[in-house]
Amino acid sequence: MPRRTAALLVAIALGSAAAAGCSSAAGPDPAGGSSSGADAAASVPASVLPTPAVSGSTAAVPTDSASAVAPSSSSPSSSSAPASVSVRGTVTDGLKSPWGLAVLPGGDLLVSERDSARILRVPAKGGGKAVAGTVPGVTSGGEGGLLGLALSPDFATDHQVYAYFSTGSDNRIVRLDLDPSRPAGSQLGSPTVLLSGIPHGSRHNGGRIAFGPDGFLYAGTGDADDRSLAQDRDSLGGKILRLTRDGEPAPGNPFPGSPVWSLGHRNVQGLAWDPQGRLWASEFGQDTWDELNLITPGGNYGWPTVEGAAGRAGFTDPVAQWHTADASPSGIAFASGAVWVAALRGTRLWRVPVDGDRAAGAPQDFLKGEYGRLRTVAADGDGTLLLVTDNTDGRGSPRPGDDRILRLDVNGG
Question: Contact, 262 vs 295, CB < 8 A?
């Protein structure tokens, strides 16, 4: 039997119509590929039972959507109670294809723009923004460009920023110094390449990076539209990587001498840790199931052999899954006892309550369709959430002021 990462599996089986556009081309591939083919099958265990889902905009209300919850003998935690979300205000707007987000000491924000390769600085109180600098060597196109950002754990003293970006031949991770005393537009030092050779394609480039509580740098990569890479332990594609600050394989990795932390991923764009230090990751599905996974070192998450929960020996099932029309999950954050998931194609913010290593109840969705495609969500130090829209990436429908960063208050739960 496969190792179950969750005693309580939540499988969201929503049948609503898809919103226009999809970050990872969830649904049929442009080339005609489909997860219903021989190399990717999806199924839901027969033991999964239907229960009502919960949805809401500023408060949770029942919907007609169907969800499924596997039986659990444990009592649900308080995090399973319905929550509410309200938009406190707009931090900034007028962004173009924003992707990565980092909160600086003192509350200012750094945000990356995928296509312009610019890193912008946004004041903590919002309003105007300034260009910190442009990252050299970035090649934009398709889903590639300047993607994730992360701050050194010692940023207050070393002023180092880490970035994940695409070139014409690969994806790579670099380190740059940020010196705010320099003139706007030239505050970034020359990048030092820490890791290159991450497979690159027009789609499925991954791109999220974050420092874990252990002080090591984690990176979510994609299969670069070559499914075979996800199961190839010698490839950096379709993996979660764990690195030292200098880009070397971190000590304690499951495969000696390798940066690979977990494998069998299609396209990872969300990484977050809970207070107990457990790593959660979001993953784009192909035609059927998007996933929220609890990551264990050396774990194999199935792609392309399985998509979603399959109950197959040797593969780890997701803790929660959604039909691709309702999610296409990018950034995630952990706050108030739940994993929060920014959905692109689904144009909403999902909340998955968790209790330890399992889901504690049915997910709730918020802000459905109100702000379009949602790329990144991050927990801020004041207890609020920061939410980045992405309607200017060529797949959304831009509205006046797009794209923007919103500040959200979370209540209850």
Answer: yes
* pTM: predicted TM-score of the whole model, two decimal places: 0.85
pLDDT band, very low/low/confident/very high, at 48 (cuts 50, 70, 90): very low
Tens digit of pLDDT for each residue in 272-321? 999 999 999 999 999 899 999 999 999 999 999 999 999 999 999 999 99
Q: pLDDT tens for residues 396-410?
A: 999 999 999 999 999
Identify any residues that bridge with 350 across adjacent strands, giving them in sequence order: 341, 365
What is the SS3 string spanning the chain? CCCCCCCCCEEEECCCCCCCCCCCCCCCCCCCCCCCCCCCECCCCCCCEEEEEEEECCCEEEEEEEEEECCCCCCCCHHHCCEEEEEEEEEECCCCCEEEEEECCCCCEEEEECCCCEEEEECCCCCCCEEEEECCCCCCECCECEEEEEECCCHHHHCEEEEEEECCCCEEEEEEEECCCCCCCCCECCCEEEEEEECCCCCCCCCCEEECCCCCEEEECECCCCHHHHHCCCCCCCEEEEECCCCCECCCCCCCCCCEEEECCCEEEEEEECCCCCEEEEECCCCCEEEEEEECCCCECCCCCECCCCCCCCCCCCCEEEEHHHCCEEEEEEECCEEEEEECCCCEEEEEEEECCEECCCCEEECCCCCCCEEEEEECCCCCEEEEECCCCCCCCCCCCCCCEEEEEEEEC
Task: Output the pLDDT for position 79.
Answer: 64
Cα atoms found within 13 Å of the Cα of residue 191, Cβ hemisphere only: 21
CA distance 158 to 162: 12
Q: What is the mean pLDDT of residues 58-83?
A: 42
Residues facing 241 on adjacent strands: 219, 260
